[in-house]
DNA sequence: CACTTGACCTGTCCGC
DNA sequence: TGCGGACAGGTCAAGT
């Protein structure tokens, strides 16, 4: 899924749905998805209550009353879906009844609360993970130490943004945007969308991008991700929010997965190419090498 | 260090 | 309707 706007949407949903609930069970069906020992789970998770749900980059952190935190990465196909069978929460949305369908084949971890509700971690491709670690140790994780700044923070300026890229001067701008140690949270969808907005070809070398172009790109990254948060994220394939509902940003996408359709700016046909090993969507007229 | 590529998985879609 | 291959929202560990 999940880039910054999707993870932010899940986090906001979980904050509405699971705060103060008490964990009574934890079922793990894949040691890679949830590698903690049974001892740790029983000691620091069972019986605890949910205190807060936070996000950093594409990672969700669920703080427990035991001073332990569930650190979760959804990678490509992860989902965190809350279902309350007692109140039928999660039922009745289009094409799906979560009440009946979850847990399903892709469910890796089921966290049960003492009121009968459940939080499911589903992950078709098994790339994602859930780790239970001391809250104070979260900032010591390799990922947390290396990850770049949050682009939507109010005090994150255009100058800040540009300065982060100097280290990656000899690679292309798309690879640099996707590099989580440069800027946190940008993935394949929003990289393509913001490069189109700034009229920058994704294969251009970072070192050749002008200050003016960086300024545009900075504004586009923020505008595109803010719009997506407002739309509940992008459902390209699997993504759903904490209530099991899809996001609608794809209805507003300008280039992503729109190959063969006209560019909204100049009507030139959008094409799909490969850059930084990823499928990449551009307007060949607006975005020149 | 900076940079690129392949690996990790399952499912789906497309061409034969 | 089967089969092989490419591809899918993301990181990592290796290689150069």
- The helix content, as a percent range, equals 25-40%
| Domain tally | 2
- The class by helix and strand makeup works out as alpha+beta
H/E element order: HEHEEEEHEEEHHHHHEE
CATH superfamily annotation of the largest domain:
MutM-like, N-terminal
CATH third-tier fold name of the largest domain: N-terminal domain of MutM-like DNA repair proteins
- Poorly predicted runs of 5 or more residues: none
The averaged pLDDT comes out at 96
Summarize the structure in short:
This protein is α+β, with helices and mostly antiparallel strands and 289 residues long. The protein is built from eight helices and ten strands. The chain starts with a helix and ends in a 7-residue tail after the last strand.
């Amino acid at each position: 899924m999940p880039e910054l706007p999707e993870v932010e949407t899940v986090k906001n949903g979980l904050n509405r749905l699971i705060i103060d609930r008490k964990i009574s069970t934890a079922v793990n069906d894949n040691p890679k998805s949830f590698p903690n020992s049974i001892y740790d789970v029983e000691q620091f998770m069972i019986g605890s209550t949910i205190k807060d749900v936070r996000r950093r980059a594409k990672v969700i952190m669920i703080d427990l009353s035991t001073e332990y935190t569930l650190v979760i990465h959804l990678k490509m196909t992860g989902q965190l879906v809350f279902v309350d069978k007692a109140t039928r929460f999660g039922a009745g949305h289009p094409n799906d009844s979560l009440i009946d369908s979850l847990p399903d084949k892709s469910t890796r971890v089921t966290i049960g609360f003492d009121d009968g509700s459940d939080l499911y971690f589903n992950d078709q491709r098994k790339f994602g993970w859930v780790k239970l670690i001391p809250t104070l140790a979260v900032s010591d994780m390799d990922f947390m130490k290396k990850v770049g700044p949050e682009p939507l923070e109010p005090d994150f300026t255009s100058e800040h943004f540009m300065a982060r890229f100097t280290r990656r001067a000899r690679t292309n701008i798309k690879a640099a945007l996707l590099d989580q140690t440069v800027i946190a949270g940008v993935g394949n969808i929003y990289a393509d969308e913001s490069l189109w907005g700034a009229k920058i070809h994704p294969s251009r070398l970072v070192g050749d991008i002008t200050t003016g172009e960086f300024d545009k790109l900075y504004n586009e990254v923020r505008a595109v991700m803010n719009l997506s948060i407002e739309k509940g994220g992008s459902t390209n394939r699997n993504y759903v929010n904490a209530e099991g509902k899809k996001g609608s940003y794809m209805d507003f996408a300008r280039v992503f997965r729109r190959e063969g359709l006209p560019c909204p700016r100049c009507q030139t046909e959008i094409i799909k190419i490969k850059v930084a090993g990823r499928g990449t969507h551009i307007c060949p007229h607006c975005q020149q090498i």
